[in-house]
Design brief:
The protein is mainly beta. It contains 3 helices and 18 strands. The strands form 6 sheets. It has a 4-stranded antiparallel sheet, with no helix packed on it. The protein is globular and about 60 Å long. It starts with a helix and ends in a 9-residue tail after the last strand.
């Protein structure tokens, strides 16, 4: 079940989700209440760590224990988008943990991306000019180390209560590392940087890739995301060779607007 939430569409065994939820409810009941791990964080000019705490001395064991090898593991916050219209409201995306919102500057967070088809988040951008509340654009999949293939781009006009796909199918199986929204236009012009580089290996070391490398590079939409144009490899003078003799634009990592 967790593999499917990360975008690895291996299928879910019958009853697995219901069993996992039931186990979660039992753990919640046993703990008494959900803990607010960062309730005492104050907002000031100095930096305060707001979590999550790392797992110290973790032992890598997906392919079997490695003798003497331990590390301190932590989650990766891939994207952050402060809302310029509302003080304290910030949206963040985790590499494998979905989309979250805070309304108090980070003292506490609420998950708002559980309904998305993958919890692998690569980028977040807002349109606070043409919509109130701001339209949230989310690019799934991430290329920041340990890549997880994405399931496309999504948007929400109600602070994450519901999500709708943006040009469904256009960005499947690719990591969307950065979004940039030109809010001087209505509908807005949107740019997206797409990258790849991750592969999937099972316990038996069988190799396969769920990514579509033909979708790499920089993309642009002039109509709020309804249709998209991929910049050609010649635009930046860079291409990579693909199996079968074809080629694709080089991966794009970042895009910003002046």
């Amino acid at each position: 079940y967790w593999a499917s939430r990360l975008g690895y569409q291996f299928g879910v065994p019958p009853g697995a989700k219901a069993s996992a939820i039931a186990a979660m409810r039992r753990m919640q009941a046993g703990s008494g209440a959900e803990a607010n791990l960062s309730a005492n964080v104050s907002l000031n000019s100095s930096w305060q760590f707001i979590g999550p705490q790392p797992m110290n001395n973790a032992l890598p064991n997906f392919g079997g224990p490695i003798t003497g090898a331990t590390y301190d593991a932590n989650g990766r916050v891939i994207a952050i988008a402060p809302d310029p219209t509302t003080a304290g409201r910030i949206f963040i995306g985790a590499a494998g943990g979905g989309v979250w919102m805070t309304t108090n500057g980070g003292s506490s967070f609420t998950s708002i991306g559980d309904a998305l088809p993958t919890q692998s988040i690569g980028s977040i951008a807002l349109d606070p000019v043409n919509a109130n509340p701001p339209t949230i654009y989310v690019g799934t999949g991430n290329g920041n180390k340990g890549h997880l293939p994405g399931a496309g781009m999504f948007k929400s006009s109600n602070l994450g209560q519901t999500w709708s796909p943006v040009a469904a199918g256009t960005f499947d199986h690719i990591g969307l590392t950065r979004l940039a929204v030109d809010t001087t236009l209505n509908p807005p012009r949107i740019f997206v940087a797409a990258t790849t580089g991750g592969n999937v290996e099972g316990r038996s070391q069988s190799f396969f890739s769920e990514e579509d490398e033909t979708k790499m590079g920089l993309w642009r939409s002039d109509n709020g995301g309804s249709t998209w144009t991929q910049y050609s490899a010649a635009t930046f003078g860079c291409h990579i060779s693909l199996p079968g003799g074809s080629s694709a634009p080089c991966p794009a990592e970042d895009v910003v607007l002046d």
